[in-house]
């Protein structure tokens, strides 16, 4: 993985098996991150925190974060000092976005609007610090999603970030962020992101089959035969798209 200029290469959006659709351990994720030349990854499991403090595996830092499902979409909380109590703020399964952002900031996080244009006609209006403009999975539903996100960030004058949205080790580093920070300490990374000393990189779009495998893993967790059957069909669908719709 080449760095287009000096800086730390960090995948800011990575899931472990703690997410219902995650398929890899943090050790496996760190191994791939090392092979792909990343300095760090942020563990951002769905509505959960796998890490309470930074952890080093080999030559890669694993940094604490989360991906919070809100009534206005998914919000990444990066570089957490402490885990937020996500369950305490849920109302009918979702948290008001303003409350989620406030709590994440109280926990030391930089807040990022994740894949804001996963649907082409989305109209995101969310008070965050940054916009995710390079997501390696989002093209599946909307090929123009990253371009739309970049335009939104430019309009709002917000820093742009990138992350693979990896749900398995093979996806790590497909998108990442180059951050102009002296080291991987949480204060240094926060300062760099909040002051726009960063830029997103989309190395490649993740093949659709990876989405199929992660959705099948989620289906298995329900233990419902109908959901599992649908998961198998979805894998086949994704494989066919990879073959015939490059």
Outline the structure in words.
- With 246 residues, this protein is an alpha/beta fold.
- It has helices at 26-35, 97-106, 145-156, 186-194, 208-222, 225-244, and strands at residues 8-14, 40-43, 55-57, 60-70, 73-78, 110-113, 130-135, 160-163, 175-179, 198-202.
- Strands 1, 2, 3, 4, 5, 6, 7, 8, 9 and 10 form a 10-stranded mixed β-sheet that branches.
- β3 and β4 (60-70) form a beta hairpin.
- The relative contact order is 0.16.
Quick overview:
The chain is α/β, with parallel strands linked by helices.
- Which ranges are low-confidence, i.e. pLDDT below 50, for 5 or more consecutive residues? none
User: What's the N-to-C terminus distance?
Assistant: 22 Å
Give the biggest beta sheet: 10 strands, mixed
Beta content: 15-25%
CATH topology of the largest domain: TIM Barrel
Q: Looking at this structure, what is the CATH superfamily of the largest domain?
A: Metal-dependent hydrolases
Count the helices. How many? 6
SS-based structural class?
alpha/beta
Q: Estimate the mean pLDDT confidence.
A: 94
Radius of gyration: 17 Å
Number of strands: 10
Structural shape: globular
How many domain modules? 2
Which CATH architecture of the largest domain is right? Alpha-Beta Barrel
- Secondary-structure element string: EHEEEEHEEHEEHEHH
Name the helicity range: 25-40%
The CATH top-level class label of the largest domain: Alpha Beta
